[in-house]
Specification:
Its EC number is 4.3.1.3. 57% of the residues lie in helices and 5% in strands. It is mainly alpha-helical.
């Protein structure tokens, strides 16, 4: 594979490949093996199109209209009508990276040859992606069953030269105009092709891939935040030692504890607090002591979700599907339940990881629990309020995350005249997880900002890795002092989490979190 190029074929894509195309604009190419198998299966569709026997999606209507035979002269119109009628999304536009992930995954299924589309259709889809043209897809329209129908239909509509797209610069253009400028001819759909373009779990899977990538980084940042709070609160690292973690062999827990322990080595704050802690405190609160248990469960849930994502990335989702034996078979593989479940599961652990972070932040602000620091970490308590309302912001986000943790996948609403009588709501699960990921990042940013202020107020040296993180933070956010406009400082810290600068600061000290 060439640098910054992803090859799409009969093999499975990886999560990182999906993210590189969706988020970083990598180009794509079709593998030679996929061109051959697509041609072979298309020949089978053409053969069936000439038969009198009804074949779903080839010579019949769709959904509850599957029993209606469509004469040959109306089949092109049938496919176009399908796309136009199903492009019925509403609400705000969906983010570009989500649409690009969705499109790449649909192209990946087309390239398996199991859908029966012509090579020209897959090639046009590829060229749309490589040209940086993003169809306008809307928030509402998918029930997560029969695929992400409305979102995928808006993409297929653009391929036909209809609807609207945004170019690389984000400008809104009529699809016909944008295609002409890019040298892409609008596709005239033939038998089964409209159906093949819209019948997959690609939207929810694409958002799962993006979320997994973000959450892997946030798992490391959660361990960093916990290590900073341990030092800022003059706690103990004894509970994180390997022999104690081995008594409960949960892999994520051991990993998280090892990260926190590594980040706390040779901390003057902790060394000076050691004797006082044994006499006066004995144990840290749960939000400190149990940090690896919660963050570890978060990591283990990520691992499970990654396995589900890998399985789905290896799938060819369409209905009907052309089997390797050349049969065209109806099936239920478009049902999004496996993806919906893990999307909901991730929203649950995101909420809990944010919750324990907020509890650590709150301890810094209470003089009865912060072990010698000013109330609310205020420079001049009473005149200044310090980080009082930063914790309010955290609390508001955590409360929202708890609402977002309510599972979407337990809901179902019948559609298509009761033909599609049980749906996954996986798209809805994906949409709320994206909001939850953003919320977790903001909660961790506030904990890190607060812990850094507390450490500075101690006047003692933290561990070298934490000192490096605080130094990087101080390039963007001032240190201890009278009250300032706090919102920009929170946003700057969020940016440092998003762009990887804080983890980069750790790497510069020789620490790479796992």
């Amino acid at each position: 594979m060439a640098e910054n190029l992803v090859t799409v074929g009969i093999h499975a894509l990886s999560v990182s490949e999906v993210v590189n195309v969706a988020r970083h604009g990598w180009k794509i190419e079709l593998a030679e093996d996929s061109l051959k198998v697509m041609s072979e299966t298309r020949a089978r569709i053409d053969e069936l199109a000439g038969h009198n026997d009804p074949v779903y999606g080839v010579s019949t209507g769709f959904g509850a209209l599957a029993r209606k035979h469509i004469p040959e002269e109306k089949r092109t119109h049938l496919q176009c009508s399908l796309v136009r009628s199903h492009a019925a999304g509403s609400g705000p536009e969906v983010e570009t990276e989500v649409i690009r992930a969705l499109m790449l995954l649909r192209l990946s299924t087309l390239a398996t040859g199991r859908t029966g589309v012509r090579v020209e259709v897959a090639d046009s889809y590829l060229r749309l992606l490589n040209a940086g043209l993003t169809p306008c897809v809307h928030e509402y329209g998918s029930l997560g069953c029969s695929g992400d129908l409305a979102p995928l239909s808006h993409c297929a509509l653009a391929l036909m030269g209809e609807g609207n797209v945004r170019n690389r610069e984000g400008h809104l253009l009529p699809a016909a105009e944008a295609l002409e400028h890019a040298g892409i001819s609008p596709v005239i759909l033939r038998e089964k092709e409209g159906l093949a373009l819209i019948n997959g779990t690609d939207g929810m899977l694409g958002q799962l891939c993006l979320a997994l990538t973000d959450l892997q980084e946030l798992a490391k940042l959660a361990d960093l935040a916990a290590a900073m709070s341990v030092q800022g609160l003059r706690g103990t690292t004894g509970v994180f030692e390997p022999h104690l973690q081995a008594l409960r062999p949960q892999p994520g827990q051991a990993l998280s504890a090892a990260n926190i322990l590594a980040l706390c080595q040779e901390s003057e704050i902790l060394d000076s607090a050691f004797e006082e802690f044994k006499v006066s405190h004995v144990q840290d609160a749960y939000s400190i002591r149990c940090a690896p248990q919660v963050a570890g469960g978060f990591r283990d849930t990520l691992a499970h979700a990654e396995k589900v994502a890998d399985n789905e990335l290896a799938a060819a989702i369409d209905n009907p599907v052309v089997t390797p034996e050349g049969d065209v078979r109806s099936n239920g593989n478009f049902h999004g339940a496996p993806i919906a479940y893990v999307l909901d599961f991730l929203a649950i652990v995101v909420a809990d990881l944010a919750s324990i972070s907020e509890r650590r932040t709150d301890r810094f602000l209470d003089p009865a629990r912060n072990r010698g620091l000013h109330p609310f970490l205020a420079d001049d308590p009473g005149v200044d309020s310090g980080h009082m309302i930063a914790q309010y912001t955290q609390a508001a986000i955590v409360s929202e995350l708890k609402r977002l943790a309510n599972p979407a996948s337990v809901d179902s609403i019948p559609s298509s005249a009761m033909q599609e009588d049980h749906v996954s709501m996986g798209w809805s699960a994906a949409r709320k997880l994206r909001k939850a990921v953003d919320g977790l990042r903001r909660v961790l940013a506030i904990e890190i900002l607060t812990a850094a202020r507390a450490i500075d107020m101690r006047g003692e040296k933290p561990s070298a890795p934490v000192a490096a993180v605080i130094s990087r933070l101080r390039l963007r956010v001032p240190g201890v002092g009278p009250d300032r406009f706090l919102a920009p400082e929170i946003e700057e810290t969020v940016t440092l989490l998003s762009n990887g600068e804080l983890l980069s600061a750790l790497a510069d000290t020789g620490i790479t979190l796992r």
